[in-house]
Design goal:
Helices cover 17% and strands 30% of the residues. By secondary structure, it is of the alpha+beta class.
Length: 227
């Protein structure tokens, strides 16, 4: 690795709920499937938009961390402007997945086992309850915002029609935490500036879905540069 490249391990803890609403291939399927709900109100929507491992653990994609840090850099001032353009140019998040310390209801953390692999298949992750998490048949989380993981149901505005839709999203209540590793060129962004961008991201941008209504805000628990 170049002497100009720094790496840092970042640990964050949520002070506002963390929302999941991934827009993936399942959101607009190639083939018609069984219809659920009605237009603008589909109680099964959360199954297509949550990100969860076979062990039932919720996770974020690395682009979420990249996006929030770059958004935070908008508020990290340098001269008359900000360092946002420089952060966009050099920042990388090196994790394949960012695991959040929350599990879907019924899946016990810390008791995962690995089942046998065979027939050219990858090893199968087995949760502590002896089951593989299958979002297609999983019970929906409770609609109790005091639960560690819950289902949020609220109206949102459709930007194209200006009408209101009902949105069903999986949420982790405040106190959630995760960590990830970033790297960047210190000749473009100093270590102090990058740490300030992460702090500003937590205070002013947030991570995950529903950031425009103040969700996903977090505190930075650690910013450890790996020498």
């Amino acid at each position: 690795m170049s002497n100009n490249i720094l790496q840092a391990k970042v640990a964050i803890r949520g002070i506002r709920p963390l929302f999941w609403h991934k827009f993936g291939r399942e959101s607009i399927p190639l083939e018609k499937g069984e219809k659920t709900g009605v237009a603008g109100n589909d109680p099964e929507e959360w199954r297509r938009t949550v990100m969860v491992t076979k062990e039932g653990q919720l996770y974020l994609e690395p682009v979420y961390a990249f996006s929030t840090i770059c958004a935070g850099a908008k508020y990290t001032k340098k001269g008359r402007g900000s360092i946002q353009t420089s952060v966009y140019a050099t920042l990388q998040v090196t994790d394949n997945r960012i695991l959040v310390d929350r599990y879907m209801p019924g899946f016990v953390p810390g008791l995962a086992e690995i089942g046998p692999a065979g027939n050219g298949k990858d090893e199968l992750g087995i949760a502590g309850n002896g089951k593989v998490f299958d979002v297609s048949i999983a019970e929906p989380p409770p609609e109790d915002s005091d639960a560690p993981v819950y289902l949020d149901v609220r109206a949102v505005v459709n930007p194209s029609t200006k009408g209101r839709n009902v949105r069903y999203r999986v949420v982790a209540s405040p106190g959630w935490s995760c960590s990830f590793t970033i790297q960047w060129d210190k000749t473009i962004v100093s270590r102090g500036e990058m740490e300030a961008s992460v702090i500003d991201a937590g205070k002013l941008a947030g991570i995950g879905n529903a950031r425009k209504i103040g969700m996903g805000r977090f505190e930075v628990e650690a910013f450890d540069v790996l020498e």
